[in-house]
């Protein structure tokens, strides 16, 4: 095959990686998918912490954050970021999981 796992990981968006992870029937998620998601949540958390009272997550940000929500249990900063997202969200809430 022409592409390696590394190439797939660098071309994979967080949204597509979430789709792959959520649709894994046996819970086995390829390492390149995990790498994309870990990079996305790390970057997002840095942005939230840097602008802890003002950063508003995008829909894609929120979907990544929601996937990792267990990591942030008890974090006031995380709770406030989620509240800001919902206070500013103007789409169909069924599109965000």
Note down, in words, how this protein is organized.
It is built from 5 helices and no strands. Mean pLDDT is 89; it is low at 1-6. It is mainly α and 97 residues long. It has helices spanning 5-11, 14-22, 31-50, 59-67, 76-88. Helix 1 packs parallel to helix 3 (31-50).
What's this, in brief?
With 97 residues, the chain is an all-alpha fold.
What labels would you give this structure?
single chain, 97 residues, mainly alpha, 60% helix, globular
Oligomeric state as shown: single chain
Helix content: 55-70%
The biggest beta sheet is recorded as: none
Distance between the termini: 34 Å
Low-confidence stretches: 1-6
Radius of gyration: 14 Å
Per DSSP E runs of 2 or more residues, the count of β-strands stands at 0
N-to-C SSE string, H for helix and E for strand: HHHHH
Class derived from helix and strand content: mainly alpha
**Outline:** globular
Strand composition percent: under 5%
The overall pLDDT, averaged over residues, is 89
DSSP summary: helix tally: 5
């Amino acid at each position: 095959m022409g592409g390696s796992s590394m190439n797939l990981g660098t071309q994979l968006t967080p949204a597509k990686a979430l789709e792959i992870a959520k649709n894994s029937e046996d819970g086995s998620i390829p390492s390149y998918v995990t790498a994309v998601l870990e990079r996305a949540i790390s970057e997002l958390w840095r942005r939230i912490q840097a602008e802890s009272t003002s950063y508003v997550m995008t829909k894609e940000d929120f979907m990544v954050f929601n996937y990792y929500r267990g990591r942030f249990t008890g974090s006031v900063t995380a709770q406030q970021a989620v509240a800001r997202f919902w206070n500013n969200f103007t789409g169909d809430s069924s599109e965000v999981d």
